[in-house]
Here is the input.
Amino acid sequence: MNILIVDDHQLFADALSVTLKNAYAGASITTCEQPKWLLDNRQSLLAYDLVILDQAMPDLDGLTLWSLICRFMGEAKVLVCSGSATETTVRRTVQLKANGFVDKSESVEQILFAIREVMTGRSYFSESFRLIAGSGPEEAPT
Here is the structure.
């Protein structure tokens, strides 16, 4: 599995990278702190099975970035990651048909569960997202 983590916070990206390397032996994990770099290197996106996008980044937020690069991503799944879900974030995530949304405050086990769900073709939306969206776990947006 090839995973790209796009997050401007190096500590979070590195910690998630180590966690994923431990959880998925043999997985290739790449981190990118500069979302604009992806705009100039769109062709590299075809190599990834999963892209984990931080929502709140300076210059270019994750959902705007995704809207600009999604057609270059092939079959890659997208998991939006954020420290806080807002009504705007929820609405845009649903409009852009993200495969999932995970809150950065969730446990490692929950983040790994979210990744497994998304990679097996299901969706995952954290509780904070579902509360704002007004749906329960069984009614989460897909």
Notes: The chain has a mean pLDDT of 83.
